[in-house]
Structures
1.
Amino acid sequence: MPLGALKVLGPCLSTELAEYLVQTAGLSPAAARQRIARAAAPVKKLAHLPFARGVRFVYLEKDFRSPYYWQRLFAAILASKSAYARALVAVQARSIVPVAHFTAACGAPIAQKKHISAGAVLERMVAAGVFERREVPGIGECVMTRQLSEYMDAMPPEAVAQVRARLIAEGILLGSVNEWLRRLSIASFNKVKIRGGAAEMPMLGTFAWDLTAPSYLGPLSVQDKDGSMRPGLIACDVLLAGSLGFGSAETFLYKVRALRALKKLGKTLFIYVSEHYSKEAFQELRSAGILPATPETLFGKDVADGFKELSKVLAEAAIRSVSPEKFDMLFNSLGKLEGAAGNMRGAFFELLVAEVVRRDRSPAIELNKICKGKDGAKAEVDVWLVIPNREAYFIECKGHAPGSSIDDTEIDQWLTKRILTVRHYVDQYLDRKPTRLIFELWYTGTLSDESLSRVERTRDANRKQFELVLVGPEEIRAKVRELNDPSLLRTFEQHFLPLQHVAVSRARRLQD
């Protein structure tokens, strides 16, 4: 009987199926529930994902993971308004979520009584097959819906490039919000924490956020009985994925309301930054006393336009040539923000190196290639170029500020782990193996004597296995100059090459 009903209803909650059986088969509610509980294949019940009051999601084997299955399952989860619904909203709004960002995005606490933790939400959604964790080139381990993951390999490169571009733009935006808060003395100058930063995950109460900070601003701070000042707090999340919808606003609001219920928490300024908002989302946030900001309201129209263009350029440059003037434009518009140029430099340098390699060697390059080594080790190659049965270039990019020092540990990681992992990947997984392996380090900062000596020792010890090449600022300038593209050379000189090299190159051009 449930079999015939599911052929009519399609995948649905057991409550909906029971109600249909009561109405069409004349069963009592209890008898209908018993029939569903005892139903055997091809009737299936979704495991690991509990709905309220023991309700299950029921479907036929033939419908499993069909578009109709996903449509009905997602609708059922969203209608539950549960922790799983908030997590689904967060993942759908972002399409691909780095695992490190999921805890803040999903709206669930790290740990709080009478609340499902973020870790449990992720674990159950993955076990139920709603979410999947997988490695995404250029981003790392991510969370996405299983529905999206099934089409991932067939997706155009632009799709992943757009997500990576959004994440880079959000990182730059968070750095700029950090400076805005500090320079207006809203936040304690050296106490701001940002996702992905050197410090631990930004936490406030039992929840993770994209940015947190203490604040001694008058309306937020409180004077204790002993006369000391107890700071207030700032919590901020960001999402640059178009218009923020009502569901995403509700996920953020859940965190806010749960936090406000904690008695010992100080006064808190909550901020959400999005490109723009739906009318319902904006009103909901404002009515809850939250500051719904945009890049334009924070930094002006020119900067807001720069953020929009940033995502477009980063996504485009990951798969094809982009005019160097666009990079200059972005540096000029977003460079007005304190710290933005530094955050952009690493991402842009990688893309500009790729552009040089496209023109100088071959357009058949890959960016952010993930290689798997022994014992599950993984390494990401910034610029990958393999010419079958000939040579292969594996380029590591270090786009540091002009003249700044590159940490010895970065070089050590490259020499001892990444190169070993890439070599194992080439040996195990490439059918038409290259005859020469060339590992290159392109860098714009300076290497210590220890790092230079370390590279030389590694090169001497492995001459028969692979070649090791350093491409420093002056070598980069020479390579770019050979391409006879003044705008590309100007971009490198203005934003990446140390000042002394810029002066030398300008003098040489004058002599020419």
2.
Amino acid sequence: MASIGGSTAVLNTAHALGLVDSPAPGKPLTIKPASGKQKKIVILGGGIAGLCTAYELERVGYDCTILEASHRIGGRNLTLRHGDFIDELGRPNYCNFDEDPNLYFNTGPARIPGHHRRLLGYCKTLGVPLHVRANESRLAYCHDTNAFGGKPIRIGQVISDTRGFLSELVQKGVKADAFDQELSKDDQERLMAFSKFFGDLKDNGVYEGTTRAGSKTERMLDHSTPTDTLNFKEMLKSNTWWSAVFASEHYDWAAPVMEPIGGMDRIVAGFARNIKSPIYLQSQVQSIEVLDDGVTVTYLNKGKIKTIKSDYCFNNIPAYFMSGIENNLSKPYTDALASMERGHLFKVAFQMKKRFWEEEGIYGGISYTNQNISQLWYPSHDIHTEKGIMLGAYGWDTDRALPLEAMELDERLKYAASQGDKIHKNYSSYIEAGASVMWARMNHMMGCSAGLPEGREDEVLSRLYKPEGRHFMIGDQVSRHSGWQEAALASAHNAMNQFSHMVTEKNA
């Protein structure tokens, strides 16, 4: 199983056979039906956590109202298509992709791991069809301007040669009796056999290349000839080899990952179809007052100040905005909110007039580079059609993001295109249109993947996991896995479970 599907296949098979525990599903959501008079809920923010909260609470009889500061719902679940408004601070613009439903760009979340059970469960319940997204392609590239003369290398070769070189070291270590733990003769023979197979070594324990990385001859008609091996010292110089070798081993990136057919915002649409609660867009919260018997929220809607009184409040507003919103929350609580930093995740995408990457054998997957664009993603859908949307940059490091955030849109697109040219020949010549989302500049968001203060993570989360009176903080920001929709749902479920317990005690 390992030789066919890698470590993830082994793990999933072991789960199926009951040899190891499956991923923990989390606490089930249990909300008792509404009773009594206190049924009014105000939800601040129409992101995934807010939509989930409205969906679940109205199903058990609560009267919910959603206030959303933006012109749309979904939060960072934003898929761009032809004509969509990009609300970047100081640089508002519109997406100029062709008017084609399959030419879209997932600007925030773009993949769903198989162990994100809450999100997958909602996709099933809400009727959101999914397909598998190729998160890895061994024919995609690993590129480092400081290694191999800046030439892009196929990921398959990097992986195969890395395994070969390390397996050869294992063989040498066994022969030299270099292991701290004494190995029996049988153990040594097994380890030698394993490393020989794992690295595709010769009988003498030396790595001389492998056809696993490809062949220099036409392998359908001739004997396969291993590609030339990479220089191991040159590989060690590279800062991107770890991405090529280990990215698919990350628990949240391991195959298979999925995406909704037609774009990630199909999840937002699925919630919207099944929510009856009123949603007020362009409603910026001005103040939050937590009282003994409820919560009063003042907000600005279409130039008018309005007030809503509710029995309970679920707050999905980015934590770092709360210091600018008048409130009577306790100082320890507001200090915890203020300690969270805004992330600088960004993406750039290009409409390509030709799916040139397919001519290079790349069907989905990711290429990695040490340049500021970090990654190129290839679409898994609409194979062999004329055009496609390629992700031309994806970064989350502040140092990489700041230069792009400061650029005008055209300058930003040219910058990303020029770096793509170093990975694919004539890359920029295929570009017809481009779009970018710098999340730290997007109105009403001003960040993505909130950062917990280093060394104080437990303290901050222990405070925000709990309600402040009748006020509950929700969203992926109130989790240990910020940036994932599953974390947003986990946070909402946690808050609703506590809410249900609170209501039960009050009605006892």
3.
Amino acid sequence: MNIEELKKQFVSKYGAGEVSVYFSPGRVNLIGEHTDYNGGFVFPCALTFGTYCLIRKNDKKSFHFASLNVENETDITFDKLTQPIGNEWFNYPLGVIAQFVKKGKTPDTGADLLFWGNVPNGAGLSSSAALEMVTGVAINDVYSYDEERVELVKMGQMAEHEFAGVHCGIMDQFASGMAHKDHALFLNCDTLDYEQVPVKLDGVKIVIGNTNSPHKLDSGMYNKRVAECKAAVESIKPFKPIKQLGELSWDDFLGLQDKIDDEVVRKRARHVISEIKRTRDAVDALKAGKLEEFGHLMNGSHDSLRDDYEVTGNELDTMVEEARKIEGVIGSRMTGGGFGGSTVSLVKDEAVDAFIEQVGRNYEARTGLKPEFYVAEVGEGSHKIC
């Protein structure tokens, strides 16, 4: 759906008049999984598909939320802006508006909002962060608030915590809000220091494989991993004062791992700390043009997520196994929170068609699910379109 079609939909619902249009992208994380809420490094890039927000102030004391992706819509009055409503989709934009209100920025009048997204739901490509960020950027601009972009990122993360109940790290919102076209973000999730690294993949494509086994971050498994990482920190604290696992080097962990009595908790910590090292090494490899080394580190990332962090599952493992059988695949791993969702693979140009055909056929034969594939372009972060 193009911008003019979206505007017609807005006018059909809310009436004629000027309308502003904003966009925030989904993201794919090339490497660095489940490190963000542990104060480690991640390496995501924005995609060219995402979520659009059309917005216009109204003369009411309420916000009207509607979406072209789902049927249910709602009108929320000013006195109810800081409380989530059940498990509805509009809790994501509502949660962002609540963050403005909590900062003392109560709007003088309401607004009509219409959303449309082309990020596949449940694919693990961060449709929720795109929805949060597009709301934050739109509200900040339309109401002439003065929040810096990094602050909007933090507000999006808090909306996810408070209104969706998912104790996520900051990577998804940061990538959606801050990324540049044709670059990936090398982000320190503890300090929020970051570097825009050019993604130079001469003769190689990024191929996303959607397992069509939707991931469910709100199932409790994600929050359980967060708790297990905190338990690892508590076990290590008496021997080395740390607040997050990301403060430990790989050598530190090797010397301290026997202080973690719980074997499962030890495995969780091993993944996080080894993944932080892999992410650093992968960024160095990309800068040096060593794509084969980058792919090897991607493979190691998936294996660690499968064996130590246990967040992959049959569908993701099957997709990765089939991908690695294809000549011309440099590396393949799950991406996102896990428990379903998508894989990301680096595939040589001449192998892309065979990859999609053969991996798709074999994956469906083994799982009974029909996958979808996207040859990804690295897009721009949140911005106003018109």
4.
Amino acid sequence: MHIGFDISQTGSGKAGCGYYAHAMVQAMIDIAPEHSYSLLPSFGDFYFDPLMPVRNPYSGKNVSYGPRHLTRETARTFWTEKDSEKLLGNPDIIHSNNFWSPTRSTTSRLIYTFYDMGFLVDPSWTTEANRLGCFEGVFRSSVSADWIVAISEASRNHYLRVFPHFSEERIRVIYPCSRFADATIAGKRPKALEGVPAEGFLLNVGTIEPRKNQRRLTEAYALYLALGGSPMPLVLAGGKGWLMEDFQRHLSELGIADHVLMTGYVTDEELIWLYRNCYANLYPSLFEGFGLPVLEGMQFGAPTLTTTSSSVPEVTGDAAILLDPKDIDGWAHAMLRLTTNRGERDALAAAAIQQAARFEWRRSASALLQLYEEALASPKRRTIE
């Protein structure tokens, strides 16, 4: 089988979507080296990384780099050509992973990874340009894709609600997994936490942006302190995203600026240390396609308080405390309960490790390869609808 696989988001600045593509292709190459893999560092024109590696970073006997475009304009020209499939060597599979979707797949089976449509749930969570670009790609997938890979049951159900014309038999859930292969790594303390003892802080991981809900989290933390909670700091580990320019003023108005440590971007080593050493991992996101920070924290034994929203309960099972992400009072009292009950905290840590072990990349990659086989054995979608 000849597989054309989009790796456009797997560069040095990769986030959730990029980690999914990176880990999935590595696992496929490892368990099925007999296939031919054309890895596509430039895929469409919605997402473009000019700093993608010049040389193929993935090793394997049958692994090659596809066309790497140096500008968004040349990428756009290539991917809108009628003979783009031919220029790629007519792969059996073309797999999109960055929201953009081709529309000219005539013989290749087009597989499209669907993450989420948070931009439809609340347009204020993102910018207009990102919202329009993401929706255009998802909409085109509903017309052109032969199969959809959804990263959770919640995402699958949302896709079918928005696009009821798409055949539900052709959308498959294949879960992401942690990008950290070794759960025994100790990690490295971030400089921002010098002097803060292990298990002496509460943690939130994620870009500071409206959808991640840090405003309500910090309001709940302020209430927790007012209720007499232990004054352990709240650590926000993540860069600043969009629409949060006044967040520092928000902390000052709550009177908790001195209790909140904002690390900015952290390395993987630092993130592992934070997960392993936090008293609890707090993740009140309003909407998730999956919720990788929850799974990764659980992998390292982080006791978890998280959201009842969207896909996250699929990740946690019964191994976390689930709360309405808008219930500030409920979050404050849950923090207070956990910080005064060491036994419950330690039980959650043990349950978290056990639950996280259910998610494994080789299992997910095997499921994806099976889907490819099914796609090749089935007619292209446009011939049967």
